[in-house]
Amino acid sequence: MNLKEIFSFEHLMEAHKLCRLSKQHKRGAIMFEIELGRNLAKLAEELSAKKYKFGKYRQFTIFDPKKRLIEALPYKDRVVLMCFCKNVLEPVLNNRLIYDNAASRIGKGSGFAIKRLHEFMSKLYINTRSPDIYFLKCDIAKYFQSINHRVLIEKLLKCGFSDDEMWFLRLVIESHGDIGVPLGNQTSQWFALLYLNDVDRLVKERLRARYYVRYMDDFILLSGNKAFLQHSRDEIAQYCEQELKLRLNDKTQIGKLSNGLDFLGFNHRLLPGGKIIKKMRASSRKRQQRYLKTIARFYLKNIVDDEYLEIRKNAFKAHLSGTREWERVNRWFAALKRRKKQLDTTF
Q1: What is the pTM of this model?
Q2: What is the mean pLDDT of each run of 10 residues along the chain (347 residues)?
Q3: Phi, psi of 96, rounded to the nearest 5 degrees
């Protein structure tokens, strides 16, 4: 696609609608909407003429679940990135990724990754009937900050993007210094999915690992053979260092499923009879409680609306479905709505 087709007025309008979801109370979204038609037309004109430049990144730190530096672009830039992701990156890259690459893809996510993990645990137990089933959990050290621009561009060139599309991709990548991609960009999610795709291929095609799932830079291999997992760890570490300029961090470990595996906020344990216990980690529960309190405060003060509340509720449902935690959180959302209704009636 050429730039005029990608960044048409209609595509930019759809991107704006997606960006403003749950953000309609933010100053950037409000100011952009005051002259929406003019702003969208200006974006389309600048992009088609290759005169577009990104604004400055705003940096802030979050500490949930751990300390992270977030770098966010102005609202207009987020609209542009959303437009490109939906019309170019997503359709092109989605078909190049393996089925069990679970993050940031339609129809997948953390719930999908956990479901696949449990399927693999059950299949492996049925096939081995052994209590000695092992996992290899790999994690990349400072993944987003360590992505090499040259390696990333080489991978994007192999995907068959047009000259116009590559012009924009380079513009995005070069807007962020000499190394790394910012956690706050929509494009960064897709870059991160693609960057480790060759590791996925290594595991599935060369190592022939049957039980493997990846969620961004957290990936799990299961096997009844501990030596195979040790060999796999060494092969993955070597490939990451030599080809991707990455290294595995200290969280990378091999352990028994009977002792429990921490993955995506839950501890997953395989009992001797084959039953799988999924339990939320204490640290995850504390973060969840703090987040729910923040939602309640904003909702009761009319900072966020019912649409935002429903989006957050559905996100919790997808993550906690099938656990007692979801039953508790679902009751909490119902109680919050009743409380809001009482306040509105009083005033």
Answers
A1: 0.83
A2: 96 94 78 93 96 90 69 92 96 94 90 94 90 93 95 96 97 92 92 97 96 96 96 97 96 94 92 89 81 89 86 83 80 90 77
A3: -95, -10
